Amino acid sequence: MNTPKAFFTVFFVFCAVFFPKIAWTQQKEPSELQIFRRAYPDVDFICSYSAAKKDFLITIKVPKTPNSAEKATTALWWAGGRFLPEAELGNQEKYWTLLYAYPKKLADPANFTAEETERMRTFGSAENRKNGAGTPMFFFDAIYDAKSRASLEQHIRRYTILNHGVSVHERIKVQLQNAETRILALAQKDKAVSDFVTGIASEGGYVWRIISGTNRKSFHSLGIAVDIQPKSLKGKEIFWSWAKDKNPDGWMLTPLSRRWMPPESVIEIFEEEGFIWGGKWGVWDNMHFEYHPELILWNFGSR
Q1: How far is residue 198 from each of residues 72, 164, 175, 225, 282, measured CA to CA in Å?
Q2: What pLDDT shows up at residue 97?
Q3: How far apart are CA 39 and CA 294, in angstroms?
Q4: Interior CA angle at 207 toward 97 and 278, to 5°?
Q5: DSSP 3-state assignment of 138?
Q6: Which residues 6+ apart lie within 8 Å of 70 measured at CB?
Q7: Pairwise pLDDT comparison (258 vs 123), residue with the higher score
């Protein structure tokens, strides 16, 4: 016991037993946490491990307003990438992980297998929409100060984007305006993009509401989603649920040629600015863009 090696062995055992927090630092944090740090560079993510919970506690510090030094703090458990409060750790099956597959290329329903078709039919069923798993909103409520309608609405601003007014969260102002600048510049030399811009009837942004047919809050309720609605659909479909009303069994097989959609170059610009496009979802929403830089980074590697 007089050797330095024996001394340090006893010392570290003593610390692990009587000061468990010291042992927390020996756990390697989830590698995916770096995606969130890159996606939200002004937000602090402090990670510590709880041996008792066998999970990581993520302390999230968000500027109270853009460029503010004062930050609001929320602590959530990693929970496999779900960011859950302690009270929900026993209900993880109710929630998706925040990082999920978002495709680079739009899937063609002409190539769907019978199994894929049936899976989408089930996913879009009233029963699944009401009782199935969904996105946990706790992380986004922290990022956008959206734990209540009153707190969220302090951050809602109205901007003119592509010649139409839209109300969104102040945190996505720069990204939305960057997309607009690039789209308008492209419209000067691309007729399809020019027709898209002049064909816009309205833009829907912030609305505090629940997603139709579910018990979950919409991302429109956070002010980070924008619906770009055209003056004319020209006989095409734009939203899966409206198509389902007409074709309950085959809505998921609606050909791409029968769906209204923005030009591919417009979709790419939005994606490069951190937005995902609802047209790539199984339950497609072709007017819908939603700010999720973490998904762009996770699936594409950069933006």
Answers
A1: 41, 11, 21, 21, 28
A2: 98
A3: 5
A4: 45
A5: helix
A6: 63, 64
A7: 258
Tokens of 262: 């923005």
- Give just the sign of the alpha carbon dihedral 69, 73, 77, 80: negative
Q: Is the dihedral of CA 94, 83, 70, 222 positive or negative?
A: negative
DSSP result, 180-247: HHHHHHHHTT-HHHHHHHHTEEEEE-----BPTTSSSB-GGGGT-EEEEEES--TT-B-BHHHHHHH-
**Average pLDDT score over the chain:** 91
Its sign, for the CA torsion 69, 75, 81, 82, is negative
> How many Å apart are CA 141 and CA 6, to the nearest integer?
50
Would you state the pLDDT for residue 5?
46
pLDDT score of 291 = 98
Q: What is the mean pLDDT of residues 1-12?
A: 44
pLDDT at residue 211, rounded to an integer = 77
Euclidean distance between CA atoms 252 and 241, whole angstroms: 10
Answer yes or no: is pLDDT of 13 > 70.
Answer: no
Output the pLDDT for position 210.
79
Tracing tokens 């030399």 back to the chain, one arrives at: 189
What pTM was estimated for this model as a whole? 0.89
Give the largest CA-CA distance in the chain.
87
pLDDT tier, 302 (very low <50, low <70, confident <90, very high otherwise): low
Q: What is the mean pLDDT of residues 8-32?
A: 56
CA separation for the pair 128, 148 (Å, rounded): 26
Query: How far is Cα 186 from Cα 43, in angstroms, rounded to an integer?
Result: 32
Q: What percentage of the chain carries pLDDT values higher than 90?
A: 83
Q: Which residue has the tokens 């945190």?
A: 171
Q: Give the three-state DSSP class for 169.
A: strand
162 neighbors 109 (Cβ within 8 angstroms): no
Q: How buried is residue 109: exposed, middle or buried, by Cβ count under 10 Å (0-12/13-18/19+)?
A: buried
CA pseudo-torsion sign 61, 64, 69, 72: negative
